[in-house]
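Preliminary data (for renewal application), flavin-adenine dinucleotide complex.
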Amino acid sequence: MVQLAGKPISYWIDSTPTNNFPTLVRETFEGVSVDVAIVGAGIAGITAAYQLKQAGKTVAVLEADQISVGTSGHTTAKVTSLHQLIYADLIKQIGEAKARLYAESNQAAVEWVASLVENEQIDCDFSRQSTFTFAESEATLSEVKDEVEAAVTLGLPASFVTETTLPFPIVGAVKFDNQAQFHSRKYLLHLAKTIDGDGSYVFEKTRVQQVEEGDPCQVITDQGVVSAKDVLVTTNAPILDQGLFFAKTYAKRSYIIGARISPDRAPQGMFIGTGQNYRSIRTTPFNGDLLLLIGGEGHKVGSTSDTEEKYQKLEDYARSRFGVETIDYRWSTQDLVSFDRLPFIGKLTPFNQHVYVATGFSLWGMSNGTLSGLLLADTILGQENRWAELYDATRATPFVKPQSLKENIDVGVHWIGDRLKGLRHQSFDDVAVGDGKLVTIKGKQIAAYRDETGTLHAVSATCTHLGCIVNWNSAEKSWDCPCHGGRFDCDGKVLHGPPIKDLEPYS
Ligand SMILES: Cc1cc2nc3c(=O)[nH]c(=O)nc-3n(C[C@H](O)[C@H](O)[C@H](O)COP(=O)(O)OP(=O)(O)OC[C@H]3O[C@@H](n4cnc5c(N)ncnc54)[C@H](O)[C@@H]3O)c2cc1C
Ligand code: FES
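Predicted structure:
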């Protein structure tokens, strides 16, 4: 078994309090009725709830776990409209006018966050930073140059540079001025505290199981029912299947390490590379020093078991490129990548009148999630929003694009193939201490993990979403579904949607 360096928890979560809000308890809160129920307390849900509360609506935020411990608590938290390389491609795919709306809405989200932090004096390590997408070789230099040209055309604060404060040479970079970074969880906890009270609620440890549209809508949780005129589903991966978002996106998991670095050796700004094996780099204040965050090694969820290797590669990079001495943190998380690169924000389906969704932020949800919250709030408040059409969640989606075709064919291959081939192991004896294996016993497909004490944890290997077979994730000790990114802990408890039901225990 590999011993990985660093505390296995997100720095954002480790440095903030847990258990900030109550659970919805049937007896105490029976009959909760609000204007808007918001399912999921990440950046999209909390931003929407904040805006709606400010506008005089009553809201109930229902969070399965705790505020901002999902993707928003595991992000790198760069708040920027520079999304690696996107604008040249968007102009080509959807035209300049629509690409301009994407640019404008993301830049507006950056400025909205900045103003809010200033006006509310939010203590969240916010700072203005330049942000860079860099090329280390000629192979991606032309893409970088095209991106600068596209971004300038769209009115973004872009320029081309050949030097940065990174401790290694680059051949060129897109630079955006006056972008920002923050501590995502401090920011979201502050907003959540302003939401609770005066007829509005924030509930933690309250998992929503179903939403029934009606007048009012019924939001059914594992603790009781909440009535609401409108419902926003902001669960990252939508828990309701009607919009088929699982077929319009794929779930990408990526890794981050945090290493202490002294300010005089740290790079200034926020960085992301280009090409297949790019790295994402920034720093954040850390006990009088800085914590250098390095992210990368992304892959489709459930497509590999050896995830320990991912952390090791990031560690090697941190040590060789930045000379860091310790690795203090490591964590990983995932986001849905939209096939047309645009988030889905708005009505769940053309037939819904009161149920809305926001998803598909493609690893840029600090700005995309913020603008989702603003857009959904405008929609509920009946205010016109010029970005609504671009992000319309019911828009015709490119099922026939090569990438979406490939991903959806992959799902079919997993669904059928995993059943036909059977699982390789026939005995729990094959499951070593610290390891997870798929085992077939009397025709049952079982996901089995043996913990450090030798105790076996055995659950059904069939994902409760649409029935694919889960795959072992060695670093996180979880069962990950290769079809739509659902994840379960080693006892089968749901960690990440779209599934809402736990894996069945094996008996
Ligand atoms: C490695 C990585 C690095 C990233 N770095 C950046 C970055 O630097 N800048 C940037 O802009 N973006 C970044 N992103 C993307 C960004 O972090 C995400 O897009 C964003 O956090 C998603 O927010 P969300 O509100 O959709 O989801 P989440 O934050 O996951 O919130 C959804 C919430 O819904 C809850 N939930 C789920 N199911 C239920 C249920 N049934 N009932 C109740 N609640 C439920 C979950 O517990 C969760 O808290 C990164 C993504 C990754 C993967
Ligand atoms: S997440 Fe869809 S089948 Fe597992």
